[in-house]
Design a protein that fits this description.
The chain is an all-alpha fold and about 100 residues long. It contains 5 helices and no strands. Helix content is about 85%, strand content about 0%. Helix 1 (about 1-25) runs antiparallel to helix 4 (about 45-80). The longest helix is centred in the middle third of the chain and has 33 residues, at about 45-80. It is rod-shaped. The two termini are about 10 Å apart.
């Protein structure tokens, strides 16, 4: 949820910055008349925040998969009859740090 909020704020900030750039380009006195492709290029700038958002979604999905594999490994370790209690506790205590590294 924290990641989602952070990403939403970043997306909104980037979207605002892109809008500012678009406005400045279109407000320039000679851009649109001298360079007919400027309006199309300015429209294409709007894709930047959406590309960022899609990339974030892909990265979150990958992180979730990595965390799940990490947790699955610990669960398998718990099922391992050869592991000592000390080893199991060490693995469980290492989980938060591993998850933090993944994020």
């Amino acid at each position: 949820q924290v990641l989602q909020l952070s990403a939403t704020r970043a997306w909104e900030e980037i979207e605002g910055q892109v809008k500012d750039v678009q406005d400045k380009i279109l407000e320039a006195p000679s851009n649109a008349s001298q360079f007919p492709y400027v309006e199309g290029a300015v429209e294409n700038l709007a894709a930047i925040p959406h590309m960022m958002w899609e990339s974030f979604g892909v990265n979150v999905a990958k992180a979730k998969d990595d965390v799940q594999r990490c947790v699955d490994g610990v669960i398998q370790g718990l099922a391992n009859e050869d592991a000592t209690d000390e080893q199991l506790v060490r693995e469980m205590r290492a989980l938060p740090a591993e998850v933090q590294n993944i994020a």
